[in-house]
């Protein structure tokens, strides 16, 4: 499939999506986000893919929703077209998705990174929700996901002032899982993605579903859900292989069944 706004590539068991609108700092137009959804659909269907990486350029992961596309919008058009809602596709991906963030991750760019399962940041990454400076509210989960990541005080300050956070502050605050030097970003992220993709796919998907439950339900319900997933994992061939390999002192060969 030929894309105009993204590049896609399969590297072994890892599906790589690179946002590619360099002249607009990867501003997230509706067309770009539709392509991201199509690419995710393809990787989701591809049984050989066990993990997806979403990245941008060294200067910008994404500088937000496309302001030039939004400028002429009025309420009726935004409401009738359910503007931005199709972006939720990223958060609904069932296979793990890692955001590899270098440079600006602003507005919708920060929100897109937060829709992924975790963020590995280059040391030049900058995160922010500058929508307030444009006279709008964040629209792709910024007020909700950022608050869950970094807590109310920091999220409130970021959303009310539009201030950017550098990579170190983002790591301290829990927004990113770790920081790596810019030059090593893709190599490091690919190593992590390959590691995940080598595990049992049904089990990595169950882990993802279980962790996400922690954000959607009570502790008691979340623990119940996890326990059911744990029991279900004993129905996979991969449980026999994983535990058998441990006992036999060899490396497991997961078959994703
Ligand atoms: N939408 C459309 N175009 C954008 C863009 C965006 N979000 N961000 C940057 N661009 C374009 C610029 O218009 C410029 O294009 P031209 O050369 O045609 O003028 C090009 O990208 C390069 O940008 P700058 O010249 O501004 O680059 P810079 O290095 O001087 O500044 C920046 C970089 C600080 C990121 C600055 O571009 C900026 O502030 N961008 C906007 C950030 C923003 O407000 N994002 C939030 C958008 S709203 C949103 O995302 C809503 C939501 O919650 C879903």
UniProtKB/TrEMBL annotation:
Q: Which InterPro entries match?
A: ClpP/crotonase-like_dom_sf, Enoyl-CoA_hyd/isom_CS, Enoyl-CoA_hydra/iso, Enoyl-CoA_hydra_C
Its GO biological process annotations read:
fatty acid beta-oxidation
List, alphabetically, the SUPFAM superfamilies matched. ClpP/crotonase
Tell me what reaction this enzyme catalyses. a (3S)-3-hydroxyacyl-CoA = a (2E)-enoyl-CoA + H2O; a 4-saturated-(3S)-3-hydroxyacyl-CoA = a (3E)-enoyl-CoA + H2O
Task: State the Gene Ontology terms under molecular function.
Answer: enoyl-CoA hydratase activity; isomerase activity
Keyword field: Fatty acid metabolism, Isomerase, Lipid metabolism, Lyase
Name the Enzyme Commission number(s) assigned to this protein: 4.2.1.17
According to the record, the segments passing through the membrane are: none
| First-tier enzyme category under EC | lyase
Family stated for the protein in its record: Belongs to the enoyl-CoA hydratase/isomerase family.
What does it do?
Answer: Could possibly oxidize fatty acids using specific components.
Q: What is this protein called?
A: enoyl-CoA hydratase
Species: Polymorphum gilvum (strain LMG 25793 / CGMCC 1.9160 / SL003B-26A1)
